[in-house]
């Protein structure tokens, strides 16, 4: 049975049991402050469990793309070193929202595994929750009784809270669970040791294949449990492990989920995969084929590699794959991007985003490979210098700070530094490196640390967003909770009627005021979490149940919505000028400026930018009225021509924004007509990533301010140059400046010639060698030219020049080629530079150093005389 057939049989089975089959949600989460990625199948249904949204159907089934690389659920370090851990994996799941519960969930699972898939019953074991006295939780007797009708009692195992009580995170929906484990060992192995002894003991052939979670509690911030309003079922079956069981393999990597990718790596690298766990080459191949899946799906869902947040995680996964292939597969050129086509072939039918975004995905990966391989090459040079210096200092351990800087600042893999050092008979300070790494993590955690208390609910009532129509409204607080972070103590509030737009869709959240006759609070930010619009205020009202007036900062909101509306016009104009391949790949919309990322593979020309700008401004002048469709079926919106963005999760009903021929699905706030935008001005166009261009622009008040500043600058230049023809006057100044520079360079060369003649006769005999130590005020370029000439003309010599040009101390050392094996200019400069509180470097024949202490040149001079 192929992996495609296995996936399809799962969906067909649950469809026959009355489940609605829904597509996978994006792997990257855009509007969830608690998670970066979907790390389980239930992530997209979180609001249903919490009661914030009504499920689209009481029974649902799907296959969900998941990513586990950070936080509580982190499998990254295990990937490649065993047969079953992955970063990106598929989670097959069936869901019941207040419909069936334990009895049916267990019956469905058993029937599918044993009758549809045909797994021998004697190979299966199940676990149930044994209870936990500390939480006052009893043994899950119901699950035990239901399982008894399907499987012998000696195959039902009690499991502890760690294994059999599933929790979404520090807080949220949770409940007891029942795991199904499959024993894939040979008959001989089973005869020796019972599978009962190996369940939940990390045996590679006795693995959990399905987890049935019975959601009935909510974990509060104070760690207490409360009953959910309804009982739910949340199941998750690891697709890759299921394929291993059904295809009779002993490793996920031996299934057809991975074998086509492995075959391509073998073809490109010339290395043969043998499946040996400890073989570094095989570990590298497993890492590569796992990581390419994670990175490809993340990029297809709109998350580009970057230096922060979710983008940093994706970059880290990709760089881990590149590092392994560089070290153990000998791949010095980009090649991972060539695996994307294989992945498309395998999974494009079930995941059309991969098919649609394939070219972009491969271009981004190729660009990241090229960049990181350069980082590795540059890092190798730095490591070599570090090793040479360590040897010169007669040390055996590379300096911890420099090793950590290579890793942290330059992105050079620490294990590669370790390998190179060991080849030279050196080591790194493992304990010191770990300490530096932990300190960095602590700093990072402290910066983002936030303690969130439980909600205090004042009234159970649906909250209403009125911000599309109003800038202010009468309201009251329905719930609040305290938040503590490094900036102090604040309160998050949910309002019965909120005019504050929550951050989302690229648009910043509203700020404003929450006040009544007695007190006033500043609204610092507004975000959305689990379907709730949450505003952060700088205190707690004395009477939290009083009536308040919520007032949006109108000027900031108007500027933000002007910038948001203009991004829609910009998107349309770019598609008209550049082609329909252009798609939005990210945006930022604030009151001061907008940023728009889009798919395009070439730098835009000045003519293209001007044409786009003119098209947008023409639409603004047309004064096109906003047509807003707040609750339109998504299919109807798409048939009308609305743009839907890849990587966004849309419901059955959507909001469509239309300005003439521009139509997009969007939840943001917008101007009532395009004339409110005023004017649109592109400030810059640049590369955001491979295949992604970025436009930064301004509109409205900021555009007006921009042109006023230009007028002022031109007026000042006119006055300064005493000419109305500013351009011609500047050209004339540049010509004069160029001529003067040429004269100065000629004078410097003349002066240097004179110095060379004098310095040649100033060398002192030191045994059978010559030494010159000289003070000068010549600039760095002139000193370098002189030293290289003296090195050629004066054999067996060392030259030390100490300069105070422009009031800054500089020391330069030259060693003639015939002495380079005895004396190292880099080592000499390091010692002399201490006197001027500086540092520098170079090669054995030439080195230079700058410093801070000009007075130290005299000490350096005396020290140099003793070389």
Automatic annotation (TrEMBL):
EC code: 6.1.1.7
Alphabetized UniProt keyword annotations: Aminoacyl-tRNA synthetase, ATP-binding, Coiled coil, Cytoplasm, Ligase, Metal-binding, Nucleotide-binding, Protein biosynthesis, RNA-binding, tRNA-binding, Zinc
A Pfam family it matches: DHHA1
CDD domains in the cross-refs: AlaRS_core (cd00673)
Keyword Aminoacyl-tRNA synthetase (UniProt): yes
Source species, domain of life: Bacteria
Free-text comment on the cofactor: Binds 1 zinc ion per subunit.
Reactions catalysed according to its record: tRNA(Ala) + L-alanine + ATP = L-alanyl-tRNA(Ala) + AMP + diphosphate
Cofactor names: Zn(2+)
Compartmental location: Cytoplasm
Main location: cytoplasm
Chain segments annotated as coiled-coil in the UniProt record: 700-750
Segments forming domain Alanyl-transfer RNA synthetases family profile: 1-709
Amino-acid positions noted as binding Zn(2+) in the UniProt annotation, renumbered to this chain: 564, 568, 666, 670
GO MF annotation terms: alanine-tRNA ligase activity
HAMAP family: Ala_tRNA_synth_B
Family membership: Belongs to the class-II aminoacyl-tRNA synthetase family.
Annotated function: Catalyzes the attachment of alanine to tRNA(Ala) in a two-step reaction: alanine is first activated by ATP to form Ala-AMP and then transferred to the acceptor end of tRNA(Ala). Also edits incorrectly charged Ser-tRNA(Ala) and Gly-tRNA(Ala) via its editing domain.
Domain notes: Consists of three domains; the N-terminal catalytic domain, the editing domain and the C-terminal C-Ala domain. The editing domain removes incorrectly charged amino acids, while the C-Ala domain, along with tRNA(Ala), serves as a bridge to cooperatively bring together the editing and aminoacylation centers thus stimulating deacylation of misacylated tRNAs.
Protein name listed in UniProt: Alanine--tRNA ligase
Species of provenance: Chryseobacterium salviniae
């Amino acid at each position: 049975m192929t992996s495609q057939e296995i996936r399809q049989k799962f969906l067909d089975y649950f469809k026959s049991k009355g489940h609605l089959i829904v597509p996978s949600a994006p792997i990257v989460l855009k509007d969830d402050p608690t998670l970066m990625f979907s790390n389980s199948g239930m992530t997209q249904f979180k609001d249903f469990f919490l009661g914030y949204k009504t499920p689209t159907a009481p029974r649902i089934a799907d296959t969900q793309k998941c990513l586990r690389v950070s936080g509580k659920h982190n499998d990254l370090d295990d990937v490649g070193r065993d047969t079953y851990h992955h970063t990106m994996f598929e989670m097959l799941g069936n869901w019941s929202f207040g419909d069936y519960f334990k009895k049916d969930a267990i019956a469905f699972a058993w029937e599918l595994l044993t009758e549809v898939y045909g797994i021998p019953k004697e190979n299966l074991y199940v676990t149930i929750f044994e209870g936990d006295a500390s939480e006052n939780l009893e043994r899950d007797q119901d699950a035990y009784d239901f399982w008894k009708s399907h499987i012998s009692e000696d195959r039902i195992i009690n499991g502890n809270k760690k294994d059999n009580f599933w929790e979404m995170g520090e807080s949220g929906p949770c409940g007891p669970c029942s795991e199904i484990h499959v024993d894939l060992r040979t008959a001989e192995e089973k005869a020796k040791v019972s599978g009962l002894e190996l369940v939940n003991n990390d045996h590679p052939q006795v693995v959990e294949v399905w987890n049935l979670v019975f959601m009935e509690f909510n974990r509060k911030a104070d760690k207490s449990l409360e009953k959910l309003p309804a009982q739910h079922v949340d199941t998750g079956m690891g697709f890759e492990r299921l394929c291993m069981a059904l295809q009779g393999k002993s490793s996920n990597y031996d299934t057809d989920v991975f074998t086509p990718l492995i075959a391509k790596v073998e073809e490109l690298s010339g290395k043969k995969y043998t499946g040996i766990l400890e073989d570094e080459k095989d570990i590298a191949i497993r890492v590569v084929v796992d990581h390419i899946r994670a990175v490809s799906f993340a990029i297809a869902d709109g998350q580009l590699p970057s230096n922060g947040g979710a983008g940093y995680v994706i970059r880290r996964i990709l760089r881990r794959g590149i590092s392994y292939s560089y070290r153990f597969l000998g791949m010095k050129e980009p090649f991972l991007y060539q695996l994307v086509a294989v992945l498309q072939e395998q999974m494009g039918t079930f995941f059309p985003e991969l098919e649609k975004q394939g070219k972009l995905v491969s271009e981004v990966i190729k660009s990241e490979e090229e960049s990181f391989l350069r980082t590795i090459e540059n890092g190798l040079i730095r490591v070599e210098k570090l090793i040479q210096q360590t040897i010169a200092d007669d040390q055996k351990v590379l300096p911890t700070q420099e090793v950590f800087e290579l890793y942290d600042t330059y992105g050079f893999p620490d294990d590669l530094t370790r390998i190179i050092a060991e080849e030279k008979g050196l080591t790194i300070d493992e304990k010191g490196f770990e300490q530096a790494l932990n300190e960095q993590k602590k700093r990072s955690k402290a910066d983002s640390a936030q303690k969130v208390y439980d909600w205090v609910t004042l009234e159970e009532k649906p909250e209403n967003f009125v911000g599309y129509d109003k800038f202010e409204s009468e309201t009251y607080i329905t719930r609040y909770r305290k938040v503590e972070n490094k900036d102090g103590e604040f309160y998050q509030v949910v309002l019965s009627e909120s005019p504050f737009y929550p951050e989302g869709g690229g648009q910043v959240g509203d700020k404003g005021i929450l006040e009544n006759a007695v007190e006033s609070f500043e609204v610092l930010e507004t975000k959305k979490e689990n379907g709730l619009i949450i505003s952060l205020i700088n205190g707690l009202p004395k009477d939290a149940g009083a009536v308040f007036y919520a007032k949006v900062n109108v000027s900031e909101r108007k500027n933000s919505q002007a910038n948001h509306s203009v991004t829609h016009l910009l998107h349309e104009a770019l598609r008209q000028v550049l082609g329909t391949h252009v798609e939005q790949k990210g945006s930022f919309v604030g009151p001061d400026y907008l940023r728009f990322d889009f798919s395009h593979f070439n730098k835009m020309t000045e003519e293209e930018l001007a044409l786009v700008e003119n098209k947008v401004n023409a639409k603004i002048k047309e004064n096109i009225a906003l047509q807003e469709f707040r609750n339109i079926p998504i299919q109807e919106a798409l048939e009308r021509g609305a743009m839907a963005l890849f990587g966004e999760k849309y419901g059955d009903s959507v909001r469509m924004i239309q300005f003439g021929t521009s139509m997009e699905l969007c939840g943001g706030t917008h101007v009532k007509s395009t004339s409110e935008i005023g004017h649109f001005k592109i400030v810059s166009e640049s590369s955001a990533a491979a295949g992604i261009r970025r436009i930064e622009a301004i509109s409205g008040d900021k555009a007006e301010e921009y042109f006023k500043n230009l007028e002022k600058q031109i007026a000042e230049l006119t006055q300064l140059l005493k000419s109305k023809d500013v351009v011609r006057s500047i050209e004339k100044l540049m010509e004069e400046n160029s001529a003067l520079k040429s004269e100065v360079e000629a004078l410097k060369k003349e002066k240097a010639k004179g110095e060379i003649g004098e310095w040649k006769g100033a060398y002192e005999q030191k045994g059978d060698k010559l030494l010159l130590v000289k003070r000068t005020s010549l600039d760095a370029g002139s000193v370098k030219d002189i030293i290289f000439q003296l090195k050629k003309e004066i054999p067996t010599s060392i030259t030390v020049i100490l300069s105070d040009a422009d009031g800054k101390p500089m020391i330069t050392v030259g060693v003639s080629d015939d002495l380079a094996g005895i004396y190292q200019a880099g080592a000499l400069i390091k010692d002399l530079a201490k006197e001027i509180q500086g540092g520098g470097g170079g090669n054995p024949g030439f080195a230079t150093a700058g410093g801070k202490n000009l007075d130290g040149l005299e000490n350096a001079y005396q020290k140099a005389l003793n070389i």
